[in-house]
Records
---
Amino acid sequence: MIILQTPKKLSNPIALSQKEKIMWMARLLTKAKLVGERGEVPIAALILDIKGRCIGYGGNRREAMKDPLGHAELVALRQASWINNDWRFNDCTLIVNLEPCPMCAGALIQARMGKIIYGSEDPKRGALGGTINLAEHKSAHHNMIIERGVMEEESKKIIVDWFKDKRFLSRKNLLSKLR
Ligand SMILES: [Zn+2]
């Protein structure tokens, strides 16, 4: 029996300095805050190509589009695949302020994303280590490089503050209705 194997394409994402990672993450956090002000969970993502050029950006727009697939990572992926003219991202880097959920982590594995950089871990829904690590699951046919904790505290604060504000506002609304 002859077994034909397609050679695995090696990932070669750009090597970013710590300063560059912080620069991109800080920019994402500014964008994520704006996303939060629109009533969406404050998450933003971008994709860099092999030369470090931003080829995709996405903010969470699940509420605005009434779209369960409207997560920041998927919005950025769609834009980048149009620019890239390919669905493979072996040489690209995705940066996001919160650890991707199972849907996005699965999509990033399918897209053969070379590297993922994220800010805060998500112990409730994270799928790159927070609750499950899909990148190391036996179904993952592709090895992604994962870097956690870039501007971790700031990334965490944005999410925590947003949920705190939301709870405060809904309590305030409820109280005003009771009066
Ligand atoms: Zn997601």
---
Amino acid sequence: MKQAVAAAALVIAASAAFIAWIVAGMAPRTEFVPYVEPRPAAEPGYLRAVYSPLHFRPAIDAATDAQCLSCHREVLEDRVRAAAPSGLKSDTLRAAYQETPTYAGEQETFHRRHLVTPLARQLMDLRCNTCHQGHEPREEAQGAAADAPPQSDAGFTLRKQVNPETTCLKCHGPFPWQPMGLPGPWEEHKAAFGNNCLTCHAAIRTKRHEVNYLKAAAIEEAGKAGAEACFGCHGGRSWYRIGYPYPRTPWPDMPAEVPEWAKDRPTQSEARFLKAAAQGTRP
Ligand code: HEC
Ligand code: HEC
Ligand code: HEC
Ligand code: HEC
Ligand code: HEC
């Protein structure tokens, strides 16, 4: 009995103390602590930047180079090393591409050679979003999560930030001599055609390069001097064995009959590259 009374007394004491504690907390404070907005970080958080809407569609489709470069300046500032790890100085060595007739100057990095080097500026007008169409920072594979691009999305290439088949392949495929009816590769037969593509292409497939990432007039100008500029994008820098299925844009005096190999070809460039399509402006 004594024990039960002691236990009840303990429960009552504990509850009373608890109620007193709550009430004390409810009483007005003597000191007023105003709410202060947390101080903005000097730089936006890393994760916030990784998940920037600019990395995803639709925002990336309308992004300007300047917007991307505000965080990724390094892609245009990175230069090749002055010396290889072995100690060899890069300015005493010639890279294979420095030996081509279209190249002038020192060695350069990937992004710079597509965006800012002399040949890039002369012939092309690539933007970040010509190649980059968004990526999934968590899973670099289709169908890995409910909200990831579906398995059927072939525009999203496993573990790559860029889809090579719809970008790189256009300018880095082999020389398509078979549909041209040439007897073999350009290197072996170019002399027969005066080493000039315009021998035939002044009249055949003359509607070309009308896309917002190429400078069509400058390309034709370069083609007059010889095949080098043309061949550079159509076989000269090939690192694919498959070819790109170019659109077959109707040209004046085009034969009405569509050859067998061209039956599945589109008749105009992809919509997002047509001149009228909106695209970001250069920085
Ligand atoms: C607010 C800053 C910010 C902006 C704007 C931004 N990025 Fe990023 N981006 C980042 C950060 C941070 C990462 C993660 C880098 C890492 O993990 O090494 C990243 C990652 C990337 C990657 C993947 C790199 C990798 O190896 O995983 C690509 C490609 C990329 N950004 C392209 C772009 C493009 C194209 C644009 C413009 C449409 C853009 N970014 C705009 C901050 C930004
Ligand atoms: C010719 C196509 C092309 C263009 C144009 C291009 N990129 Fe890239 N970029 C690539 C490829 C390919 C990679 C490597 C992707 C991979 O590893 O899967 C890459 C990688 C990157 C990365 C990852 C880090 C690195 O340096 O490897 C960033 C960031 C990036 N690009 C930003 C940009 C920005 C910003 C622009 C515009 C100023 C741009 N890119 C223009 C093709 C391009
Ligand atoms: C619109 C045409 C075009 C597209 C698209 C393009 N490139 Fe290029 N690429 C070029 C040109 C032109 C050069 C030569 C630039 C120079 O010499 O200054 C080049 C050079 C290169 C080189 C150096 C190779 C060499 O032999 O000199 C590599 C590697 C390369 N590109 C990879 C890529 C990748 C990867 C992509 C896709 C993400 C891509 N390119 C998309 C036109 C293109
Ligand atoms: C002997 C004439 C001839 C010469 C020389 C020639 N071409 Fe062609 N080219 C053709 C013909 C014919 C076609 C296919 C026309 C058609 O679509 O019916 C063609 C098609 C093409 C195509 C589109 C291929 C496709 O798969 O749709 C490209 C790209 C091309 N030529 C580039 C060049 C380049 C670059 C050179 C110079 C290095 C060159 N051609 C030299 C006759 C020639
Ligand atoms: C900077 C790279 C580059 C250079 C230089 C270049 N091309 Fe192209 N060419 C392309 C690309 C990219 C396409 C596909 C464009 C598209 O999708 O409409 C193309 C498409 C073509 C086509 C198919 C056009 C069609 O719509 O039927 C022909 C033919 C062609 N090029 C011939 C040439 C000739 C001839 C030259 C030299 C005067 C030349 N190219 C120089 C990149 C280049």
